[in-house]
């Protein structure tokens, strides 16, 4: 054969791979290209038997009917079959086959050995590509089928609906023409060979339009149906039968399966619950999902095994349905008696669920707290270690020495503040704080605090504004406790203020109470976080991910200290919008005469 013809065939094959058509359509077009290029009247391309999904390509010349003969010949190497057919076969390296047919028994393509190898390689490449597409389509189709069946099974209210949905979804997917569900009844399920006294009956049917349905027959004996019996022994694996491989011998099975019209039979076993026989535990076959095709269909074992999920789900549904049916009467009788008990159990369950949720939340807070404390403890220590190493360098300039001495002092103070917070929190929770009341000027008292914080906030350009109704502003309180409270509130304000904004401290008297407000402007606090803002270890959503340092103890300490001072603390906040910053305000309400309040 001319090399240009082979080249055109190969170019045509590779060109088909650029199409967006279904892989079967593409393979059919490749079969046409091969047949026309080699002057064949028909061409059948079959992939490797291990290919997932359905894939084959067939083409024949108009006016000819060679498909059945070509398929029979490809399925059986005996040349006496369809001897009137001109037949030629190419075996591909990956396990696929290309079969050519011609009405002239003497027909044979004029291919040299080199051309044959070249052609085989090209077809193998194309087939491998289409097999991969088919496998992907098959897996996606199986996944979608399982989703649809799973949803339908969950919604099915009756076992008959379940059978109908299963057959109507599964059969078209497998390209089957008709299908059925048959169930078995055993006279003695615990007998050594229970199938000998088992009867089967068809409980559900499905067929395509214009396809004859499974005939209505009376119950049949399992032992009289050789294919059911063979599938029974092979369970739980699916069983595939072909008319040409095992011609039926029993009249009942011939009538039931209509073998000549539907030569392919696929049986998916439905397995019952575990039963114990002697010292062995086994599962009994309670029925089959049967599917029939009107042509010989070859299914790879890997495809059949994927269908076990369907039979397992239907089996489970049947077991569940039968169990419910058996206990329904008992449940109806006891419903009234158990209603009260169920209500109590429901409340207990809800309480338990809430407690578990609270415990889970506390564990999360604890873990985050430990992470934060570990970080807050390690960071100053690391900085101090670096400063000490640098200070040990000989001939260090005085300016740099002072810089690292200041760093040591600053990081020491940071470590000390964290430890003091933890100790103060423990003392406040154990009611072991000793309070001493003094009269002092609050404005003069907070001036050193403000100066220290403004120095610390230099990088963010934050300033503090004090708003007061009187000067001097004389109050009676516990100085150390109040200093700790204001220090924590200013620390919190500095963390969550936007750059170049003002932190406001407003003080006054209202309803015989000292009122101190600390306001800052930034992202604000969500209503959800406000509800738990004073809880131990609580931090706002996302602050840890944003790298904002903290342990979640500061505001808890504020609340406990304010309580010891005889007052209370509240928070209100508005979230930031596109137009303006959010505002957060912590308000302290303290007694004017704390000694009298605490004494009471």
Overall pLDDT metric:
82
- Number of helices in the DSSP assignment: 15
Named CATH architecture of the largest domain: 2-Layer Sandwich
Radius of gyration: 42 Å
Query: Outline, from the CA principal axes?
Result: elongated
Report the end-to-end length measured between terminal Cα atoms. 115 Å
Give the strand order, joined by hyphens, for the main sheet. 7-6-5-10-9-8
Question: What percent of residues are in strands?
Answer: 15-25%
At the fold tier of CATH, the topology name of the largest domain is Heat Shock Protein 90
Helix fraction, binned, reads 40-55%
Number of strands: 17
Structural class, from helix and strand content?
alpha+beta
Describe the structure.
There is one protein chain. With 600 residues, this protein is α+β, with helices and mostly antiparallel strands. It has four domains: 3-138, GAF domain (Beta-Lactamase), CATH 3.30.450; 156-306, 2-Layer Sandwich (Beta-Lactamase); 330-432, Signal transduction histidine kinase, dimerisation/phosphotransfer (DHp) domain (Helix Hairpins); 438-599, Histidine kinase-like ATPase, C-terminal domain (Heat Shock Protein 90, 2-Layer Sandwich), CATH 3.30.565.10. It is built from 15 helices and 17 strands. Strands 7-6-5-10-9-8 form a six-stranded antiparallel sheet. Helix 11 runs parallel beside helix 12. The longest helix is centred in the middle third of the chain and has 84 residues, at 308-391.
